[in-house]
Amino acid sequence: MAANNFRHALFCAFITLIISYPIIGFNLEAQGINVTLTGADATTIVMVLLAAVIVFLFQMFREQIMGGLKSIPHPLPQSNKEPMAENRRAKIESWVLTGIVVLALFWPFFVSRGSVDLATLVLIYVMLALGLNVVVGLAGLLDLGYVAFYAVGAYTFALLSQYTGISFWLALPIGALLAALFGLVLGFPVLRLRGDYLAIVTLGFGEIIRILLNNWTTLTGGPNGIGGIPDPTLFGMEFGRRVKEEGNTSFHETFGIAYSGEHKVIFLYLIALVLAVFTALVIRRFMRMPVGRAWEALREDEIAARSLGLSRTAVKLSAFTIGAFFAGFAGTVFASKQGFISPESFVFLESAIILAIVVLGGMGSQIGVVLAAIAVTILPELAREFSEYRMLIFGAAMVLMMVWRPQGLMPMRRIHIELKRQE
Amino acid sequence: MLEVQNLSMRFGGLLAVDEVSLDVQEHEIVSIIGPNGAGKTTVFNCMSGFYKPTGGKILFEGKEVQGKPDYKISRLGMVRTFQHVRLFSQMTVVENLLVAQHRHLNTNLISGLIKTPSYRTKEQKSLDRAAYWLDRVGLLDLANREAGNLAYGQQRRLEIARCMVTEPKLLMLDEPAAGLNPAETKELNQLIISLKEDYNVSVVLIEHDMSLVMDISDRINVINQGRPLASGTPEEIRQNDDVIKAYLGEA
Ligand SMILES: Nc1ncnc2c1ncn2[C@@H]1O[C@H](COP(=O)(O)OP(=O)(O)O)[C@@H](O)[C@H]1O
Ligand SMILES: [Mg+2]
Q1: Max alpha carbon distance in chain A (Å)?
Q2: Helix or strand or coil: residue B217?
Q3: Is B124 exposed, middle or buried (0-12, 13-18, 19+ CB in 10 A)?
Q4: Which of A304, A417, A420 sits opposite B88 (nearest CB)?
Q5: Per-residue pLDDT of chain A (423 residues; tens, 9 = 90+)
């Protein structure tokens, strides 16, 4: 056992060396027209050796370390306590949720423009994560290309506004429905696959959409993207200094107040808030409906679900389509917020971030997902000096989560159903 | 109501089921017995649409169903349990029963979202049906427990209740008494008889517990190494020399 461990640890350390030395150690330097290869300086070599030693020690004492991590007191001790009485809990929960939403409604009027802008982004991620939660958390389908549907929503609005001058409010349902349609069409051939295969194929789909957007220059403008996407209007009132669209009025003139760029930002935030709440409510309702239960049943035991008359394809497709629908929603808001979109906003990393939010939040849990969305979006902004290490911290956080709380920050709780005894 | 004619199922070189025939009339409990590996579960898998049989016919209420997708067969009213219990273990007990009733609640998404009166009525009905069956199998007090946390015997009963809420015409039970203690087996015995008497379902039963089989079966089919060995009433089977030699004798 010990010898085995030692060999394994040595091997891991060796791999660390031969991978990191060439990548970090060698530098290509351009001198005039010649490129020369320079070796690593002493500090780099020391660092690489140090890394190898750390890897060696970790692998050598892996069991002890992991055991130690597990025995560290639980970060959320109350999570193991007896749950409180069901109806009381439900009441408190709904009060707290209402309180949070009310607070979120008034909060933007007292903070800086930058914070409101960031909060809008958080809300967009909340929508995305809630939608992906349906696919991954509830239906158990690992979708690594979710960002594709986000892109479809955003590009639908961008293109329609460019070619037909459509308004935000009309684009919102169209973008979402088109994304849902994409989900349906892409899902159909893919959903026969399981587990890893499904993950790989959806990953491919995500990339195909992005590459298509990048290369179809005549339609999408390629890497240059599409700009001039209009802001939302409020009953025909625009938020810009000057009215752009014929027949519209301007917000500050109608109300006789001075123009301020903040109005628009706050308005967008409020729209995102309303849509995020809408998304949460609709999905919450779905979870208590036959579709929602069918998603979970299929995740839990596909064979049993089929033996009870559930059609695998129909159930999976419905999850995929509904998830895509909300991604389209978020995409439209995103396009409107940015005013400019390009394929760069829809890279795989986005899919990974959304997925991380779902996993961190606790698969299937809505409040957990909202908390995780806030954490994942805001923390990197707060710690800008660490931005280089962002992905590293991210990865470490995920690993720690898997050790401590594999069920996520707030695992999904089953709803309590009252039954009356029948005669 | 069910007729299996010369059913065969081949896995590569292995002929797991070889020309097995059986029939089930309305209001009947028919058992399939045979040693381990005889092919009993495979017969069920063909009947319930999990396998596409390589030969033979399966007629349910006069219509050929062999090779139809599993979920369609289940919707016709042929529902099964599994040799190894298959519950939705992270869902609660009552949710397990609600999943099974999705067809009774087959409304569109919008009417469920805005809770139309007709949706509410249907929802209430399926809750009542769930409550009724939970009460019937003695699990009503555990309705909001996670199904995976139930004791083994309770899981078995929940699995049967989950079939019953779909209002099947034919129930297929794969070794329902396996792992039960004698008291639980007795309860199961009564439950199966009551399913036939009070709820008008026919039952196909795979079971090793001979006293249970002999007690409640109207007819018994014996298969051995995939081939039919004998069939008849419990009395006939008890006295059949082939059966005694091949199966009962060794027990
Ligand atoms: N999917 C399968 N692939 C290959 N062989 C199988 C498969 N299913 C069952 N068998 C084989 O068929 C034979 C009958 O199995 P089974 O029907 O489970 O027996 P029983 O339920 O009577 O104990 C066994 O030899 C088993 O190994
Ligand atoms: Mg078997």
Answers
A1: 93
A2: coil
A3: exposed
A4: A304
A5: 667 788 888 888 888 888 877 777 777 777 777 777 777 777 888 888 888 888 888 888 877 877 777 676 655 544 444 555 666 777 777 788 888 888 888 888 888 888 888 899 999 999 999 999 999 989 989 899 999 999 999 999 999 988 887 888 888 999 999 999 999 998 888 888 877 888 899 999 899 999 999 998 888 888 888 887 777 777 766 666 666 666 666 666 666 676 677 778 888 899 999 999 999 999 989 988 999 999 999 999 999 999 999 999 999 999 999 999 999 999 999 999 988 899 988 988 889 889 988 888 877 778 888 888 888 888 777 766 766 777 777 778 777 877 777 777 776 777 778 787 776
Residue A329, domain member (yes or no): yes
Query: Which has the higher per-residue pLDDT, A332 or B109?
Result: A332
**DSSP at B247:** I
Query: From the candidates B70, B73, B105, which should be mutated to test the interface with A, based on the most A CB atoms within 10 A?
Result: B70
Average pLDDT over every residue of B182-209: 93
Q: Does residue A76 sit within a domain?
A: no
**Residue A327: which domain range?**
89-404
Higher pLDDT, residue B162 or A418: B162
Check whether residue A192 and residue A46 sit in a common domain.
no
Distance CA B105, CA B114 (A): 15
The answer to whether residue A83 is domain-embedded is: no
Q: How far is the CA of B42 from the centre of ligand 1 (A)?
A: 6
- B98 contact A CB<8A: yes
How far is residue B100 from each of residues A63, A316, B65, B159, measured CA to CA in Å? 43, 17, 21, 10
- CA distances to A406, B4, B15, B219 from B227, rounded to whole Å, are 49, 14, 9, 17
Whether ligand 1 lies within 6 angstroms of the CB of B58 is answered as no
Asked if residue A355 and residue A248 are part of one domain, the reply reads yes
Instruction: Say whether B115 sits in a helix, a strand or coil.
Output: coil
Domain B1-77+168-251 falls under CATH 3.40.50.300: yes
Q: How many domains does chain A have?
A: 2
Same domain, A275 and A366: yes
What is the pairing mode between strands B202-206 and B29-33?
parallel
Distance between CA atoms of A314 and A136, rounded to whole angstroms?
A: 16
Helix ranges (DSSP H) in B2-49: 40-47
Check if the beta carbon of residue A321 is closer than 8 Å to that of residue A179.
no
Whether B142 lines ligand 1, by a CB cut-off of 6 Å, is no
A381 and A246 in a common domain: yes
Helices within A107-167 (DSSP H only): 113-132, 147-164
ipTM score of complex: 0.91
Residues A43 and A105 in one domain: no
Q: Does B165 touch chain A (CB under 8 A)?
A: no
Domain boundary among A17, A35, A67: A67
Closest Cα to residue A169, out of A329, A380, A386, A388?
A329
Distance between CA atoms of A239 and A267, rounded to whole angstroms?
9
Q: Are residues A295 and A390 in the same domain?
A: yes
Residue with CA closest to ligand 1 atom 6: B11
Name every chain B residue with its beta carbon within 8 A of the beta carbon of A319: none
Whether A413 is covered by a domain: the verdict is: no
Q: Is residue A135 located within the same domain as residue A47?
A: no
Same-domain pairing of A62 and A166: no
pLDDT at A249: 66
Overall residue count recorded for chain A in this entry: 423
Tokens matching residue A257 = 């107040």
CATH 3.40.50.300 intervals, chain B: 1-77+168-251
Residue among B14, B19, B22 nearest B55 (CA) = B19
